[in-house]
């Protein structure tokens, strides 16, 4: 496993592998939801590749990402809940910023499997980055932007043999409190992933 390089509070992930994987049509054919996960940890390289695929920088000159964002707000943050605590993905540095030491995996949903799966992603909208004052428009765009990222995760998992499921069954208020989110942050939904139980 690669050695972590620490820059301030950021654990820089291994360089993402941006080649390989299944062809797009094969990944689409294999994309599905599952709710049974092995407890096996996901290696650092695979976590790196996954987060880059989710919403990493794919155009260094402009800072463009792998997922689109309404009006280029880039208001969705990906929080990564693992056994070693809660982190937030920093796409610019391609690293994980440590947020909390607590294992919050079980708090990310109401189903039993979420607490045992190795990773739960929580998509959080930062409304301070959104210039619309219309609450309906804000909800619509934030949900769509989070869904784009979640679909990237689905396709990556289908390509790499990981199990995955998106979840709307989340106690958003309780989770936001557990994550110590600010007043302008909103939990949109969560996504559980890991190796399938047959791994």
Q: What would you note in describing this structure?
A:
By secondary structure, the protein is an alpha+beta fold. The protein is built from 4 helices and 10 strands. A hairpin with a 4-residue loop joins strand 3 (57-59) and strand 4 (64-65). Helix 1 packs across helix 3 and helix 2 crosses helix 3 (135-160). Mean pLDDT is 92; it is low at 1-7.
Q: Which range does the strand content fall in?
A: 25-35%
The major beta sheet can be summarized as: 8 strands, antiparallel
Our count of helices gives 4
Give the number of DSSP strands: 10
Q: State the low-pLDDT regions, or none.
A: 1-7
Q: What's the pLDDT, averaged over the residues?
A: 92
- Which structural class should the secondary elements be placed in? alpha+beta
Approximate shape: globular
Sequence of strands across the biggest β-sheet: 1-2-7-6-5-8-10-9
CA radius of gyration is 16 Å
Distance between the termini: 19 Å
The arrangement of helices and strands along the chain is EEHHEEEEEEHEHE
Fraction of helical residues: 25-40%
């Amino acid at each position: 496993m690669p050695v972590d390089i620490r820059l301030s509070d950021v654990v820089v992930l291994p360089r993402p592998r941006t080649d390989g994987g299944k062809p797009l049509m094969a990944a689409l054919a294999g994309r599905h939801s599952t709710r049974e996960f092995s407890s096996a940890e996901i290696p650092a390289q695979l976590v790196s590749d996954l987060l880059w695929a989710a919403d990493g920088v794919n155009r260094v000159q402009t800072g463009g990402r792998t997922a689109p964002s309404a009006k280029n707000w880039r208001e969705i943050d990906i929080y990564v809940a693992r056994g070693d605590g809660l982190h937030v993905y920093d796409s610019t540095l391609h690293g994980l910023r440590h947020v909390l030491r607590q294992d919050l995996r079980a708090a990310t949903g109401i189903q039993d499997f979420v607490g045992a799966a190795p990773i739960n992603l929580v998509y959080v909208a930062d409304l301070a980055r959104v210039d619309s004052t219309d609450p309906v428009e804000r909800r619509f765009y934030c949900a769509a932007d989070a869904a784009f990222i979640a679909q990237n995760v689905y396709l990556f998992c289908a390509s790499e043999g990981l199990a995955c499921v998106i979840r709307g069954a989340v106690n958003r208020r309780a989770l936001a409190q557990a994550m110590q989110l600010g007043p302008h942050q909103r939990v949109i939904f969560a996504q559980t992933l890991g190796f399938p139980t047959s791994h």
